[in-house]
Design a protein that fits this description.
Among the domains are: 99 residues, Alpha-Beta Plaits (2-Layer Sandwich), CATH 3.30.70; 88 residues, Calcium-transporting ATPase, cytoplasmic transduction domain A; 96 residues, Calcium-transporting ATPase, cytoplasmic domain N, CATH 3.40.1110. It is 47% helix and 18% strand. The chain contains 24 helices and 29 strands. The longest helix is centred in the last third of the chain and has 36 residues. The relative contact order is 0.09.
Length: 731
């Protein structure tokens, strides 16, 4: 069985071992995420995706150049994933299971590039000193022997440096040509080799001009650009790398009164785990013994530690910062919230935004176009000047200056940095084009329960006595209704024994306490015929003919009013759409300052309202809980959901955040608008650069050295412009 090779060394994964890492999807298909090597430009992305999509079994294929990640899904046998992986390998790209060497490979590349950069820098400094002598005004008084001597010194310095420092480009080009295609390194390598060979030819034949300084400086600036590109990709992969690191390692498991170090991947539901201060919690679980404080910022984005006690839920990846405690694992490590978050991040990368599709299309047209322009440049100069050296030099200059690096980096770097910025604040993107759509909205529709309010009603302490609360709590423990759970939470005493418990969905709970029939539920169902509508949330207790009302408040999120005002201040139309009674909805709307509100809206009513607005041309953001509002969340242009950690993967929203405030919505909108602005700026930089650079190169106003500097500078400007998304001003 053949061992796969990358450009540097063998790796231990055999051809038929990729598919074992595939995940089975809900539609009986499979999806696989792999680390991909030697991806340098948008043309590489296009080539890989096109090769995979040629097969009818492939449902999707997506290469993320910034994170060097390939994700594809297919119908059919699981082993078909290996066949597809080999198709990519045949194109000259290395593949590894994602996560196995996510950090090591980047570090190795950085070290190699730094060594090459150091050698090129040393050679460039010495060659420039020689060039000063060769190009100075006194050169006409220099003897031929002296000039030849300086030329040969340049040969001795330049050729070893070019051979060593040019390896990243030469190996990549050779690999591509072996697979009968080209990449951006082919014209670069050609330019360096031709400039060096022409200079050697001139040296041997006692010529006047050599270009070793240009060739080495070209290498130097290209290596700077390549190194910065690798660092930017490393920055983009930090979030995924940090998450994956938390899924590996060992944990202290208590078995038979002894401590055992067990790999996290081997932890099963029900195991008891000891978590020491400062340690990362290895799996989701429930505190079994002890009290501590846990840093939940990975999950919620909030920096204030949470106090946890016996019975409280804790999640994998969060940090114990106070004292040791024991927890009982509630899920295996692979099924933990952290594992699900990683899966969500990977899923969001499978879809392309409109900007990515535009960039990919432009790159597919751009690359063959510049090769044609370079050929025409060579022929034109050959016809009008009749000097093949100059014609070839100008053609190579065109190839160098038109490398589509800036175009290829325009979108992915900005998108990945935006997603990473939001993730650090506890905001998860579940759709690849969510930010692009969010930047264009003009209407916000808000749900009430769980959105403007916390969705956790609290019992008001009036209108009942302790005995009545005890009876109500004894029935409430048999129901999962939020109001029943609020009664259960409010009573801490001993419960009564109840018989013949029966729950009637939509009405309430019925049981017998002794010989008394007791009901807990809706007003009419409990025998109260007064249908007067109230703006309070209530639950009734019926004990024979006695009727007791329990009243609740659903606490507003503390920044609900400020969030609504922010939407209104930036020109959004804001609507409150809820299934609660008109009085309750009206009361909440007045508190937060919403003039347009509708109560008693069913899921169908909400969808019809959204459809009506969309027909008028509105771009809608729907904010609601991801479970109850699934149809309207799906129908809106983009959706955001405040979600508890428990239901995060069930949520149908495009964007999910956690915590008790709505500020993350504002931050997401700000980042989305900024990301869109930066992406457009990056496109304009790439377009303007090419509009200026191509004519200058075609008409011979640019040397290979200047072309290399210009090309690297354009890529650097795009990368640095994208890093503005990390500025502290975006809050």
């Amino acid at each position: 069985m053949k061992i796969l090779e990358n450009s540097d060394k063998e790796h231990p994964y055999k051809e038929d071992e990729f598919s074992i890492f595939a995940d089975q999807d809900a539609d009986d298909g499979y999806s696989l995420t792999l680390s991909i090597e030697n991806i340098h430009c948008a043309s590489c992305v296009q080539r890989v995706e096109k090769a995979l999509k040629e097969h009818k079994e492939v449902l999707s294929a997506r290469v993320n150049m910034s994170t060097e990640r390939l994700t594809y899904s297919w119908k059919g046998a699981q082993s078909f994933g290996d066949f597809l992986a080999n198709k990519v390998i045949d194109l000259g790209y290395g593949l590894k299971p994602f996560g196995n060497s996510i950090e090591g490979n980047s570090k190795d590349q950085e070290k190699t590039l730094l060594r090459c950069l150091a050698v090129a820098g040393f050679a460039m400094g010495n060659l420039m000193m020689i060039s000063i002598g060769l190009w100075s005004e006194e050169v006409e008084f220099m003897g031929v022997a002296t000039q030849d001597f300086l030329h040969w010194i340049s040969v001795i310095i330049a050729l070893p440096a070019i051979i060593y420092s040019g390896r990243p480009f030469f190996f990549s080009s050779l690999n591509a040509l072996k697979k009968r295609h080209t990449n951006m390194d082919v014209p670069i390598s050609l330019a360096i080799i031709l400039a060096s060979m022409m200079s050697l030819f001139e040296t041997i034949n006692h010529g006047e001009h050599i270009y070793f300084d240009s060739a080495v400086m070209l290498l130097f600036f290209l290596l700077i650009g390549r190194y910065l590109d690798i660092r930017a990709k490393g920055k983009a992969k930090e979030s995924a790398k940090a998450l994956l690191a938390k899924l590996h390692g060992t944990a202290t498991v208590l078995m038979d009164s002894k401590r055992h170090n067990v790999p996290i991947r081997d932890i099963k539901e029900g195991m008891t785990i000891l978590v020491a201060p400062g340690e990362s919690i290895p799996v989701d679980g429930v505190v079994f013994k002890g009290i501590s404080e846990v840093d939940m910022s990975l999950i919620t984005g909030e920096t204030i530690p949470n106090l946890v006690n016996k019975g409280d839920a804790v999640f994998a990846g969060t940090i114990n910062i106070a004292s040791a405690f024991q927890l009982t694992a509630s899920k295996a490590s692979q099924e933990s919230l952290l594992g699900e978050i990683v899966a969500l991040m990977e899923r969001s990368e499978r879809s392309k935004s409109r900007f990515v599709r535009i960039a990919d299309k432009a790159a597919s047209i751009y690359t063959p176009s510049v090769h044609i322009i370079a050929l025409l440049t060579f022929l034109g100069w050959l016809v009008f000047d009749q000097t093949w050296q100059l014609a070839l030099l100008n053609a190579v200059t065109v190839l160098i200056i038109t490398c589509p690096c800036a175009l290829g980096l325009a979108v992915p770097v900005a998108q990945v940095l935006a997603g990473s910025r939001l993730f650090k604040s506890g905001i998860l993107l579940k759709s690849g084009d969510a930010l692009e759509k969010l930047a264009g909205i003009d209407t916000v529709i808000l749900d009430k329960t769980g959105t403007l309010t916390l969705g956790k009603p609290e019992l008001i302490e009036k209108g009942y006595n302790e005995s009545q609360l005890q009876i109500a709590a004894s029935l409430a423990v048999n129901s999962r209704h939020p109001l029943s759970q609020a009664i259960s939470m409010a009573y801490s005493g001993e419960l009564l024994g109840v018989n013949n418990v029966e729950e009637f969905p939509g009405f309430g709970v019925q049981a017998f306490v002794g010989d008394k029939e007791v009901r807990l539920g809706r007003r009419q169902w409990c025998g109260n015929e007064n249908n007067q509508e109230t703006d309070e949330i209530e639950l009734w207790l019926s004990i024979n003919n006695e009727k007791i009302c329990f009243k609740f408040i659903d606490v507003l999120r503390k920044d609900a009013k400020n969030t609504v005002q922010y939407f209104q201040n930036i020109g959004y139309k804001v609507t409150l759409l809820s299934g609660d009674s008109n009085k309750i909805v009206s009361n909440i709307a007045k508190k937060v300052g919403i003039a347009d509100y509708y109560g008693e809206a069913s899921p169908i009513d909400k969808c019809e309202y959204i459809e009506k607005l969309k027909k008028k041309g509105s771009k809608i953001l729907m904010v609601g809980d991801g479970l109850n509002d699934a149809p309207s969340l799906s129908l809106a242009d983009v959706s955001i959901s405040p979600s508890s950690a428990i239901d995060i993967t069930q949520n149908t929203a495009d964007i999910v955040f956690q915590g008790k405030v709505l500020r993350p919505i504002i931050k997401t909108i700000v980042v989305a608008k900024k990301a869109k602005k930066i992406i457009i700026e990056n496109f304009m930089i790439a377009i303007c650069y090419n509009m200026i650079a191509i004519p200058l190169a075609v008409f011979g106003y640019v040397t290979p050295l200047i072309a290399a500097i210009a090309m690297s500078s354009s890529s650097l400007v795009v990368i640095l412009n994208s890093f503005r998304l990390n500025s502290k001003g975006i809050e």
